[in-house]
Amino acid sequence: MIRRPPRSTLFPYTTLFRSGELDDSRNDHFIWTHKKFEIGYNGQKIVDVNLTSEVKVKLASGIKIPFTYEVIWKKSTTKYEDRFDKYLDPNFFQHRIHWFSIFNSFMMVIFLVGLVSMILMRTLRKDYARYSKDEEMDDMERDLGDEYGWKQVHGDVFRPASHSMLFSALVGTGYQISAVTMCVVMFAILGELYTERGSLLSTTIFVYAATSPVNGYFGGSLFSRMGGKLWIKQMVLSAGLLPSLVCGTAFFINFIAIYYHASRAIPFGTMVAVTSICLFVILPLTLVGTVLGRNLAGQPDYPCRINAVPRPIPEKKWFMEPTVIIVLGGILPFGSIFIEMYFIFTSFWAYKIYYVYGFMLLVFVILAIVTVCVTIVCTYFLLNAEDYRWQWTSFLAAASTSAYVYLYSFYYFFFKTRMYGLFQTTFYFGYMALFSLALGIMCGTFGYIGTNAFVRKIYSTVKID
Description:
The chain has 465 residues and is an alpha+beta fold. It is built from 14 helices and 4 strands. Helix 4 packs antiparallel against helix 11. The longest helix has 41 residues.
């Protein structure tokens, strides 16, 4: 069988063969001088290759060492399309802990949905009853009454978010990442993308480029509804936000790889090809989506009129501040996926081939539901405190899940891997930062979508003077 160094001293999908060993007790060095290749074939196709090192020779000054090899061909009954099955690890990925984590997350979803429904329905029913009673009062009684709650900010709740250009670009990118994730996971379930080297990455790049109109449509329409005028600038920002971060990080790590003469260095031609895709495919398709979004869904249709003068935000308790809500908002979503994060990290950094994409699809759905439920509750409390800054709060509260994932990657690096040195450390934390960033944008978009539907629903069913 293939002999490998300790699991995390290399990078993913890199195979090196053991060429020697060290006897620590006597400080002697040995080298393997004979390589035996056992090649299995089925028909005209190779389905299996095993390498064994034999004949250990002690190294000494001035000796001549002959190197030999042999090749043994063996007929195999393994089908060509099943040649990767021997490298899968069902005992690891289908362990009962994995099943238990999925079941635990599913029960969390049921509990959260039931809790949110019960609390909000009962609370909103009381709010509606109180507001209906207020409507029956005359002006004198209403002025003397103690009015409070989310209805008081109806004239500001649909006020455009601050930095609307960046906000709409992030939301549009989140829509695109969600579509890419769903498509790639479905392709992986149906097509077994793990059987070809680089097929998963190539599929992701292709799907991301093809779904660029999704980014332009939702980001452009949201920016138009918020009253944005510089739509070309917003379109360029939306199209280049994630690709620029990914390419910038990858190229920086690549320069370090070139300095260390590492095999993981990206060829210059590949860098040019990726840049060309961004300029000549992603940007034009995003432009098409932006034009469609502005024309088809760019008109504001809020259920409440926006006041000309912003309402002052009253003081509230410390735990109702947006900063606290943002920090605490990602705990439950992270709790629903952190076991799956361990399996994903292990497949990427420890030579395990991830193939249980059905689990990943289920966890993706669970994450979306948990994120929406949590952000709806957080937004209700924020609005009840008469703070109408819910757009960024809902987005960042859901996106804070990625901060916990990135913190978990530190634990995984120091306790589950054996990486060291500048190149390996930069490689690991650079790409984990990109993964966490994409996850945060996607979760933030989930939070905003659910919260936006909730806010529109509650304000459309209340009579506003």
